[in-house]
Design brief:
Elements (H helix, E strand, L loop, with lengths): L3 E4 L3 H8 L11 E4 L19 E7 L12 E6 L21 E7 L11 E4 L3 H9 L6 E6 L5 E7 L1
Antiparallel strand pairs: 1-8, 2-3, 3-4, 5-6, 5-7, 7-8
Pfam family, one: DUF1203
Protein name: DUF1203 domain-containing protein
InterPro entries: DUF1203
Length: 157
C-alpha cells in the first residue's frame, strides 16, 4: 500500500478569498460567526471556534469546469490561518464524525466509479491507501457522509 498525504485547500485559493476575491460562483464569500463545532476550516483543517468569524462560500476543488467538478459550500477562517502541514496524520476535522465519504478520481479529474464509499473515520487512511494503489486513481477526496461537503484531498506521499 502506498503512503498517503492529506492535503488541505491550497493557500493560493484561501488567499484569493482573504484578499477580497470571489468564490467558484463569482460571488463574495458570506461572513458568519461560528457557534462552535460544525464549521471546519478547509485550510488549517481544524474546527473554527465559537465566536470566530468565518467565510462560507462555494468551492470547486477541481482545475476546470466539467460534469464531475462538484461545487459546494465550505468554511474558511476569516482571519488568515496556517495551512495544515501534518500530511501523514488524520486531520482534526476528520475526527468530528463517525464516517465520511471517501472517493477516488482519475487523472482527468472525474470520479472513478465504484470507489465511493461511506467509510468509518478509523478506516479512512487504509481505504485511501487501497484506492491509491489501484491503477487509474490519481487522488482521493474526503467528503461529509451526510452533506457531501468537500473536506480535504488525499494524495500518494
Amino acid at each position: 500500500m502506498p503512503a498517503i498525504a492529506f492535503a488541505a485547500m491550497p493557500t493560493s485559493d484561501a488567499e484569493t478569498l482573504w484578499n477580497g476575491g470571489a468564490d467558484a460562483y463569482d460571488h463574495q464569500p458570506e461572513t458568519m460567526v461560528s457557534d462552535g463545532p460544525g464549521h471546519p476550516c478547509r485550510h488549517c483543517l481544524r474546527n473554527i471556534d465559537a465566536g470566530e468569524e468565518l467565510y462560507v462560500f462555494a468551492y470547486r476543488p477541481f482545475p476546470e469546469l466539467q460534469p464531475y467538478a462538484e461545487t459546494g459550500p465550505i468554511f474558511l477562517h476569516k482571519v488568515p490561518c496556517r495551512r495544515y502541514e501534518a500530511e501523514e496524520i488524520l486531520p482534526p476535522v476528520l475526527t468530528t464524525s463517525p464516517d465520511f465519504i471517501v472517493r477516488g478520481y482519475g487523472e482527468n479529474n472525474r470520479i472513478v466509479y465504484g470507489t465511493g464509499a461511506v467509510t468509518p473515520t478509523d478506516d479512512i487512511k487504509a481505504y485511501a491507501a487501497e484506492l491509491l494503489s489501484r491503477e487509474g486513481i490519481a487522488y482521493v477526496h474526503v467528503r461529509s457522509a451526510r452533506n457531501n461537503c468537500y473536506q480535504c484531498r488525499i494524495d500518494r506521499a
